[in-house]
TrEMBL record:
<keyword id="KW-0012">Acyltransferase</keyword>
<dbReference type="InterPro" id="IPR015422">
    <property type="entry name" value="PyrdxlP-dep_Trfase_small"/>
</dbReference>
<protein>
    <submittedName>
        <fullName>8-amino-7-oxononanoate synthase</fullName>
        <ecNumber>2.3.1.47</ecNumber>
    </submittedName>
</protein>
<dbReference type="GO" id="GO:0008710">
    <property type="term" value="F:8-amino-7-oxononanoate synthase activity"/>
</dbReference>
<dbReference type="InterPro" id="IPR015424">
    <property type="entry name" value="PyrdxlP-dep_Trfase"/>
</dbReference>
<feature type="domain" description="Aminotransferase class I/classII large">
    <location>
        <begin position="39"/>
        <end position="380"/>
    </location>
</feature>
<keyword id="KW-0663">Pyridoxal phosphate</keyword>
<dbReference type="InterPro" id="IPR004839">
    <property type="entry name" value="Aminotransferase_I/II_large"/>
</dbReference>
<dbReference type="InterPro" id="IPR050087">
    <property type="entry name" value="AON_synthase_class-II"/>
</dbReference>
<dbReference type="Pfam" id="PF00155">
    <property type="entry name" value="Aminotran_1_2"/>
</dbReference>
<keyword id="KW-0808">Transferase</keyword>
<dbReference type="InterPro" id="IPR015421">
    <property type="entry name" value="PyrdxlP-dep_Trfase_major"/>
</dbReference>
Length: 388
């Protein structure tokens, strides 16, 4: 593509108020971040349990770097899979109860590998309509094609499963949807998949650490077992406070991915120091249920206050609490008004969400204080009324 065409596309995005800026920021402790020399309350991060700033985890990162160095210096099947990687894999298996896991440099890569490797070329992928970009992009590359069922709608999935016959289908969904914060009925969805002998692949990026006993995830909270899923993707960039991702599954599924998963085989393994820190984060996440309890209390408080302010909240019980605005310029105006008052809450606009469904996506953390949540809702209520 020539640069003139790129400039035209960029200009179009600016005209539609869809051009995104990237300002350098510094996350601080206690739900704050610094940008342009000013401190803000941060309601846009994914550090759901506050582990990204946890001193024990940071010490593990420094110790890991002194002992193992900065990078893994190799792809996992050459020299990249080292003792810290194995210790992290063992901690994940012990926590989640899957036979084995593979680590990836991002959740995006983990999803790409999971879908592209586990669906056979003659099988069709069936994805929820609101699936994350990493799942949709993987599906677009799939030789067997893909279809999307209506969001969290089992009868829509049932119809697609019937239409797919005699070809086989592989079903893909998320434990908590990233832009809406809601969840499918996983027990019913799993039973439907079993009736059709269709493997189920789950992206639990936003459920891991937050939901279920010891934070095992949305599948565990809803009564599923590892055997209910062909594979489960999780990532380290949200509740665990780091970065990277993994796919968990049976010994056969994981060995198949290890042998055939191109994203795994041909990519530098995670930093070993990061793996040392992530293992510590996993242990704290399991043990410190007070973090989940604190987050749950914050979710409840936000919902109560938002109801009193009559804010148009989407129904969500997760750490993701979207305020549906609809119009892009209104969403931007509210976000700007909040910024003036020292609150960082980005507007989420198309193409990340469907046209006409721009929103302010509040994300809560155990690191927040109740007073910060009160401040947010009060400012949001004022700004919302000011634009309506
Ligand atoms: C549902 C979902 N899946 C996958 C990803 C990708 O994970 P990562 O950020 O680790 O690449 C994200 C992150 O934004 C997500 O929200």
């Amino acid at each position: 593509m020539d640069q003139t065409r790129m400039q035209l596309a960029l200009q179009e995005r600016r005209q539609l108020q869809l051009h995104r800026n990237q300002a350098p920021l510094q996350p601080l402790t206690a739900g704050l971040l610094r940008g342009g020399g000013k401190d803000y309350l941060n309601f846009s991060g994914n550090d759901y349990l506050g582990l990204s700033q946890e001193p024990v985890v940071l010490k593990a990162l420094c110790d890991g770097a002194s002992r193992y160095g900065l990078g893994s210096t190799g792809s996992p099947l050459v020299t990249g899979h080292q003792y810290p990687h194995q210790a992290l894999c063992d901690a994940l298996c012990d926590w989640l109860g899957f036979d084995d896991v593979l680590l990836f440099s991002s959740g995006f890569a983990a999803n790409q590998c999971m879908l592209q490797t586990l669906a056979a070329s003659e099988e069709r992928l069936l994805l929820d309509k609101l699936s994350h970009a990493s799942l949709i992009d993987a599906a677009k590359h799939h030789a067997g094609g893909f279809k999307r069922f209506l969001h969290n709608d089992l009868s829509s999935l049932d119809k697609l499963l019937a239409q797919t016959l005699p070809a086989k289908a592989v079903v893909v969904t998320e434990g908590v949807f990233s832009m809406d914060g809601d969840s499918p009925d996983l027990a019913a969805l799993s039973a439907l998949c079993q009736r059709h002998a269709a493997p189920l692949l789950l992206d639990d990026a936003h459920g891991l650490g937050v939901l279920g006993s010891e934070g095992r995830g949305s599948w565990q909270q809803q009564g599923l077992t590892p055997a209910s899923l062909q594979a489960c993707m999780g990532n380290f960039g949200k509740a665990l406070g780091g970065s990277g991702g993994f796919v968990a599954g049976s010994a056969t599924v994981i060995d198949y991915l290890r042998q055939y998963g191109r994203h795994y085989i041909y990519s530098t393994a995670l930093s070993p120091a990061l793996c040392v820190a992530l293992r510590e984060a996993v242990l704290l996440c399991r043990q410190q249920s007070w973090r989940r309890e604190r987050l749950a209390a914050h979710i409840q408080l936000l919902q109560q206050l938002a109801k009193a302010e009559e804010l148009p909240m989407l129904a969500s019980d997760s750490a993701i609490q979207p305020v549906l605005i609809g119009d892009t310029s209104q969403a931007l105006a509210i976000s700007d008004a909040l910024k003036q008052q020292g609150i960082w809450l980005g507007a989420i606009r198309p193409p990340t969400v469907a046209p006409g469904s721009a929103r302010l996506r509040i994300t809560l953390s155990a690191a927040h204080q109740p007073a910060q949540i009160r401040q947010l809702v009060q400012a949001l209520g004022q700004a919302y009324r000011g634009t309506h």
